[in-house]
Design goal:
This protein is α/β, with parallel strands linked by helices. The chain has one domain: Metal-dependent hydrolases (TIM Barrel). A five-stranded parallel sheet has the order 4-5-6-7-8. The chain has a three-stranded parallel sheet with strand order 1-2-3. Helix 1 links the parallel strand 1 and strand 2. Helix 10 runs parallel beside helix 11. The longest helix is centred in the last third of the chain and has 15 residues. The radius of gyration is 18 Å and the shape is globular. The N and C termini lie far apart (42 Å). The structure holds zinc ion (ZN). The site of zinc ion (ZN) has 5 residues, from loops. The site of zinc ion has 5 residues, from loops.
């Protein structure tokens, strides 16, 4: 063997935070949501082959889930409805049943019949659901969201929750009135990160059979202090995890190690937030910032790259029923 750093240390690599966009709308026009590099299931599967990624958590949304994102990109909901559709997600799951665990969103307050849609997705075999409450002007303990957690419990499914804290103007102070709708209402109701998570603790504690993943490790400026705070919170609850979406990069290697040290080796999951991040060769760097991270033990690298994701979904196979 050559350099021991390059020995494979993971039996399975799982990217626990990706999105897939239909490449063309129903009129044959190229998708406008992420113009530029490919963002389709085929594009991602090609990258999986190139970089040795076995499986991924596929998060799909409807335009109504992410209004401030579309507003920031200057897009109308209608212009991206075809390419962000639940229908595309189901096509992808049918085409690549061995690759993806499905974590549908489609839960925004403006999505008609959101609870019926959620139940139908779970009936089809979704592994869980993704929540972006800050985009909806809600905190995690909003009354409207309680039935979503109960549904996850009923179906043995799990929750990816994005605090979107980095949009709330707290770490870098901003007047709530200057924030987009949704984030603005949440920003007015909380002081800081600990105040925000006081609205999450009871949800995680009262649904102990549901695993929760904090997207982007809490979605804050990724400093060592913030990573330790997130890690300490995770450590308090056996069913709380975090993904590294948008953070898996060589420049964050040390901070990732601090996060793993605080949270424990069994909670932090490799993730990229592709196609927003980790396009092309950056995907290899994202994998290597774990695989070759000298601040992590060999066991920790293996767990972060894939073992913890398999724990999160409790060993279930990808695909739908
Ligand atoms: Zn994302």
């Amino acid at each position: 063997m050559g350099d021991p750093e390059w020995e494979p240390v993971s039996e399975v690599i799982v990217d626990t935070h990706i999105h897939l966009i239909r490449p063309f709308d129903s009129l044959g026009r190229p998708q406008a949501y992420t113009p530029g590099p490919g963002a389709s299931a085929e594009d991602y599967v090609a990258l999986m082959g190139k970089w040795g990624i076995d499986r991924a958590f596929y998060i799909s949304w409807s335009p109504e889930d992410i209004p401030s994102d579309l507003e920031g990109k200057g897009l109308t909901m209608e212009s991206v409805r075809d390419v962000l559709s639940r229908g595309y997600a189901l096509e992808v799951m049918d085409t690549f049943p061995d690759r993806f665990y499905w974590f549908p969103c489609h839960l925004g307050p403006r999505v008609h019949g959101y609870l019926e849609t959620a139940r139908s997705s779970l009936e089809l075999g979704a592994a869980g659901m993704k929540l972006v409450p800050s985009f909806w002007g809600e905190l995690p303990d909003d009354r409207r969201l309680m039935p979503v957690y109960d549904l996850a419990d009923e179906y043995g499914a799990h929750i990816i929750l994005d605090t979107s804290f980095w949009y709330l103007g707290k770490d870098a102070p901003a007047d709530p009135e200057t924030l987009p709708a949704g984030h603005r209402e949440v920003a007015k109701r909380i002081r800081d990160f600990q105040d925000y998570v006081s609205h999450l603790r009871s949800v995680v504690a009262s649904h102990s059979d549901v695993n929760f993943s904090l997207a982007h490790a809490g979605a804050r400026a990724f400093t060592t202090d913030n990573a330790r705070q997130a890690g300490q919170l995770i450590r308090e609850y056996p069913n709380l995890y975090a993904d590294l979406g948008a953070l898996a990069s060589p420049r964050h290697s040390g901070t990732i190690a601090s996060l793993v040290e605080a949270a424990g080796e069994d909670r932090i999951m490799f993730g990229t937030d592709w196609p927003h991040f980790a396009q092309a060769d950056a995907m290899g760097q994202a994998v290597d910032c774990i695989r070759c991270n000298e601040d992590l033990s060999r066991k920790a690298r293996r767990m972060v790259l894939g073992g913890n994701a398999l724990r999160f979904v409790e060993g279930r196979a990808p695909g739908l029923r």
